[in-house]
Fold this protein.
Amino acid sequence: WIDPPMASPTPVVDRLIQALSHIRNSTTDAKLIQVWVPVDRGGGERVLTTNDQPFSLHPGCPSLAHYREISVDYHFPAEDDSEGVLGLPGRVFRSRVPEWTPDVRFFTWDEYPRIVHARKYDVRGSLVVPVLEEGSRSCLGVVEVVLTTQKIRYRPELESVCKALEAVNLRAVELSSSSNVNTSDSTYQAALPEILHVLRSACFDHSLPLAQTWVSCISQGKQGCRHSNDNVKNCVSPVESACCIFDPHIRGFHEACSEYHLLKGLGVVGRAFNTNKPCFSNDVTSCSKTEYPLSHYAKMFGLKGAVAIRLRSASTGSTDFVLEFFLPVNCEDSAEQKKLLISLSKTVQDCSQTLYVVTDEETNYTVINESKIAAAQSMANHQESSSSTFKLGSKYDYTFVFSGSTSETLATNRKKEKRRIKAEKAITLQDLRQHFAGTLKEAARNLGVCPTTLKRVCRQHGIQRWPSRTIKKVDHSLKKIQRVIESVHGASNTVNIKPFSSNFTGRASSSRGFPESNTLDDLNLSERAPAPAGLSVLPSSSCSQSSSSSGSSNRSPASDGNNLVPIAPAAEETVPKSQERNGPRVKVRSGEDSVRFRMQSNWSYSDLFHEISQRFGADDPDEFHLRYLDDESDWILLTCDADLDECIRLYRSSPKETIKL
């Protein structure tokens, strides 16, 4: 088995031995590396075999040594028209595209004939890469890397194999000659903020573990190790800036999706690209790896139900977006899935501004010039806008509804976009001021717009952050001042401080978005009653002077020439007795599990993190992060002592008795 004639021919086997040496030295993990090559068998049949071929074996792993011994007895068809079980090496040899799995034990016998031996010798992760001749499409064989541990990301191993083959004038990836792969169409990015808002709303409203957006690799300008001349036009991958990972434990699955690009037609995402109807699967793990290449990762992370829908945006033309939503892991009953999908479709519809479902008629038009835009507009004038109902599968009689703009085309959605812009201009700064005391979501609901639109309106008026939290902080400080005044004997009802948010005046700063208060009169102090004997109330104009001379007044009582003015000791914030001894109650949820306990008053962030990791039995605490639910019902990252102090402060000033993490 020799290369084509060269000045000094080098046997391919010798080059593969050099490549194996490079791969072996790149890592110290226990692994078996073996080469499968096509050989002639009796009767003119060609098969893949690793018998009498170079291999590399970690010396301290006897289980892999046994697995190597049984591998030499296996062979797989090498001809395109051959029948029989291909196995993992045979599939890679035919497709000329790398393939890997986190755990070979997820295979069936038809997909991996060595499955019984793999379970016996504790074989887990596996990577198989084609060996291609430089300057030719012919496949000389495959390199198989076998591990004894589960593995999620294979990029380092794949890069190591590719570099080792390139060092000996071979390659592992069939580089596409299509110029479109390197040319990205950045126009699709205009729709990503709206899509991200839809995904976040769906995850938070329905506790979905993961939602992500898929776009063609050509549109993103992405290259992948699974690209080839034959499949690059049908390859799709997730958009990193348009995904929502609600459950941190699922992050590994999203990373696997980013590495293992899908082809159109495979899985719910691939099928959604080929149809205008939503695609649903009640259990993606029941699919084979050929039907859904990410099924092994779904088993690994416990994901089952998934739905995908193909959408377009009025602002991005004919670019297709497929939104993929994974149902909660505990949602397995068909009635629960039906209820959730109907609710999910309503959320997607409510949050969408320019997104719409693609129609069969619209796929016949590719908007690339003015004549085709006119054709699409003419078609839109003869269509009626109506809701669309799609059945999700033969096993279920319920539907996924996306109404309002299903049959709208590009021209109709532009009209909708104009109406949205007109609605934004109708919201004035005075309208915003009336709602500053409430949360952003409450204000959006009262104004009849979505939170994303309201944020955009605020930025147009110079408001970078919704001021309700600042107002609540001022209210909290005023309550403390009121308690200090009331703690003085005989001072009850002398000065009544109204809550800052109860009678909001609306004097807002155009740059900050919250009222400016320079004197005590701006804080809605009521008319002062006569002070009791022995107590003097300082006027507001002397606040700055009294604060600057506080050092001397603390050493000796102040005198106005007649009577001494006693200085009342500051009263501490009233805290229930149960909270004086201990900290607040905490309820922590992780996936399906939850715990509840009371913090100690002297705990720091590290103490809280250690307690939670112990209660959930986390072997590696670095694998999870903490978030707390704030006063605006948003999940805020908790990373340090300052964050914990802010969390507890919000808890103290709210009627809630439990901190949710």
Observations:
- The longest strand covers residues 31-41.
